[in-house]
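Supplementary material to the annual report.
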Amino acid sequence: MNRPIALLLAALALAVPLSLLAGRVWIDPFDPQTRNATVILLQLRLPRAVLALVVGAGLGSAGAAMQGYLRNPLADPGLFGIAPGAALGAVLSFWTGYAASVYLLPVFALAGAAGAMALLALIAGRDASVALFTLAGLMIANLAGALMSLAISLSPTPFAMSEIVTWLMGAVADRSWREVAIAAPLTLLGIALLAATRRSLDALTLGEAAARSLGMEPARLRALLIAGIGLTVGASVAVAGIIGFVGLIVPHLMRPLTDHRPSSLILPSALAGALLLLIADVLCRVLPLAGGELRLGIALSLIGAPFFLHLLLKMRRGLV
Amino acid sequence: MMSLALDGASLAGRLNGVTAKMNPGAIHAICGPNGAGKSTMLGCCAGLYAPDAGVVRLGGTPIMALTAAERAQNLGFLPQGGEVAWDVSVETLVSLGRLPWRDAPALETRAAIDAAITAMDLDGLRHRSMSRLSGGERARALMARVLATRPCWLLADEPLANLDLAHTATLMRRFREQAEEGRGVVLVLHDLATAMNHADRVLVLDRGRVVADGPAAQALSEPVIAEVWGVRARWLGEPGARALAIL
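Predicted assembly:
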C-alpha cells in the first residue's frame, strides 16, 4: 500500500469517530450521561457519517476517472449529464408527489441517471471520439437542466417548489440507514467498475491513437465509464442531491501526491472524497447559522468556486 | 521476427489499394506530399484502422484477427505530436509501454523499462518530469516508451518533427540500432534527405497509391520527385550524406 492511501486511511480512522461527537448536541466520550446519546449516535450521526463517506468516495473516484478519460484536470463527473439526469428524476418525483414515499425519490433519481446513461451510450455509439462523447454529455446535461427548470416553474404547489429547491442544494442531513442501504452497494459497484478502467486510462495519457495501439478498447472503456460514473454519481444524487466540486477538487489535491498516472489516482480520490465530505458535513453541522444548518452542497460550492478560480489562474501561468 | 504486409489495402478514399511487403531488420520510410495517405497507411499497419478492402498481415496473420493485446505487443506505434496528458516522470512514461503485457512477470517488466531507458540514453533523466525535458529529450522518452513494449515493429509518424539537426541524427542512430537488433522500422518522413540518407527502403505515396517503392536512391529519384511533389530538385553530395537542392 502506498503512502497517500495509508495516510488517508489513518485520517479517516481518526476523523470518523471524532465526527460522531460533533453537532448541535456535543457528546463527551468520557461522560456517557448525555441524554439519548445512543440514539443520536446510532440513528442520526452514524448513518449521516457513513452516507457522507459513501457519497464522497463515489464522487471522488468518479472525478478521478473522468479527468483521466478526458485528459483534462478541469473535468467534473457532472459533465456527462448523469448528475443532472438523476436530479431531473428526483425533481419529477417531487413534482408528481411520489417523493412522499421514502423509497420512490431515490428510485426516480436512479431512473433519471439510467436514462441519461442510456442516452449517452446511444448517442456516443460504437465509434465516438472523446470529444463527441463529451459533447453528447453536455447536451444531455443541458437538456436535463432545462427540463428540471420547466418542472420547477410548473410545480403544482409552492410547497413542492420549495421542497425541490431545498433538495437540489444537496445534503446528507436527516438521512437514515435506509439511504445508506441504497447508496452504499451501488457506489461500491461503481467504484469497482471505475477501478477496472485503470489501465485504459493510463494508456490514454498518450492520446487516443497511442492508447489504442497499446491495446485500449474504446467501446469497452466507454461502457465501463458510463456504468461506473452512472452508479457512483447516480447513487449520490439519489440520496444526497447535487453536491458539486468534490469530483473536481479531490483528484487535484491528490494528483501531486501520486505519480500522476490516472490509475494511481482513483483509490486515493475515493478516500479523500470521503474524508472531504465527512469534514465538510461536520463543519456544516457545527457552524452557527440562524434558521438551521448550512447545506452541504452550498458549502462545497463556496469552497469549490474559489478553488476552481485558483486552478484556472495557475493553469494560465502554465504550472499545472 | 515477422514481416508486415499490406495487400490491396484501401480506406475511405485516403488509401487506394496499397500493396507492400516490409521485412524486419530494415528501416522503411513512407514519403509523399501532404494528404498522400502516409499516416493512414501507418495507422493501418498499426491496426488503428481496419481497411475497407484488402488486408494487413503480420507474419501471414491478418492483424485484425489478432486480439487488441496481441497487436499491441507486436506493433509499437508512436503517433505524431507526442501528446502526454499528465506530467509524469520519464520512468512512469516509459512504463506505459508495458501496458500490453499485463501478465508479464515484474522482473521482466523492470528489465524492459530499464533497457528502453538505457537504449534512449535517458538514465540520468529517469526521475525528471516530462514538462522539464527539452524537445530532443522528450522525443527520446516517447521513443523509449515504444521500445519498452519490445515490439517486433516500430511504427513512427513523423518522429523527427520539431527536432534540431543533432537530435535528428541521434534519433536516427537509435532507429538504426533497433533495425540491427532485428526489429522492423517504419517511419513516416517529411524530410526527403533524411529518408534518402537513412532508409533502406522508401515507399512514395501519392493520393493513396504507392507510386515508387525500392531503395532510397531509386524511389526518391529526381524524376519521381518532379512527378509527385511537382518540384524540380537535384540531389547533391555523396551517397549517405545527400542534400536536396530545389531548383
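Residues 38-316 of chain A form a domain with the ABC transporter involved in vitamin B12 uptake, BtuC fold (CATH 1.10.3470.10).
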